[in-house]
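The instructor's notes for this session suggest beginning with a concrete chain rather than abstract definitions. Hand out the sequence below and ask the class to guess, before any prediction is shown, which regions might be ordered.
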Amino acid sequence: MSIKSQFKEAILAHHPEQSREQILEKTVSSLARVGLEFNRERLGHFPYEFSGGQLQRVCAALALLHEPRLLIADEPTSSLDETAKSGLLDLLFSEQDRLGMAMILISHDTDELKRRCGRVLQLVDGALQNTVAPIESRQSKRARPEARVGRPLLVARNVSCLLYTSDAADE
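After discussion, reveal the predicted structure:
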């Protein structure tokens, strides 16, 4: 399925009244917001014709297409090099600020995310092992997570969590 077809399907699922031109405009603007400038021909290409970093940005654009209140990303930076990883996280946190959405990032890659998240939970075999204090730099941009304890996640604003698992053998 081409990139253009994937966007068309996602847009029509929520807005079946959209014209072909409106779909194209929304597709192009969504991709531009994540740093991808594609001409019409490139939109017709298939996922295997893009780099890993480009594919992650396409996925981010699709996930953010309808401006969600909550974004759950499972391994959003896996298999990306350090530059692409940092760029994708910059994008996600920028969109989080712009939209005022909550995010839950699930990852085994913890170093970069610990510096950016407002709250970090560690799971081992599906059970909460501990809560790791985030690094202060991210806290300066966000309300302290302690102030949000007891509030439902869906109404919380600008809270990012990192859930990661570790094997018992790694402990």
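Then share the key points. Residues 14 and 45 are 23 Å apart (CA to CA). The helical segments are 3-14, 20-33, 40-43, 52-64, 82-99, 111-116, 136-139.
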